[in-house]
Write a structure and sequence with these properties.
Number of helices: 3
Largest sheet: none
Radius of gyration: 16 Å
Number of domains: 1
């Protein structure tokens, strides 16, 4: 198992490092990350307001539409 994880980590870091992006693409990535962070902050505030998790998940999904992959806005919890 350890060998598999090490191999996966090496592959991922190599793939990430070998990817070249233009300045425009990097700026777009920065913008997307900030938008996702704002959406996640909104989800946290939603949960703090005692709204039901399903309501907050729907709000997060709407806020992240077109930004990230999956129904969790690029972030999946263990539960």
């Amino acid at each position: 198992m350890k060998k598999y994880l090490l191999l996966a980590a090496v592959f991922a870091s190599t793939a990430f490092a070998s990817t070249t992006h233009t300045d425009k693409e990097i700026k777009e990535d920065i913008s997307r990350h900030r938008a996702m962070a704002a959406a996640h902050e909104g989800a946290a505030k939603c949960l703090e307001s005692a709204k039901k998790p399903d309501v907050c998940a729907k709000e997060l999904l709407a806020a992240c539409k077109g930004l990230a992959v999956g129904k969790y806005c690029g972030m999946k919890h263990v539960h």
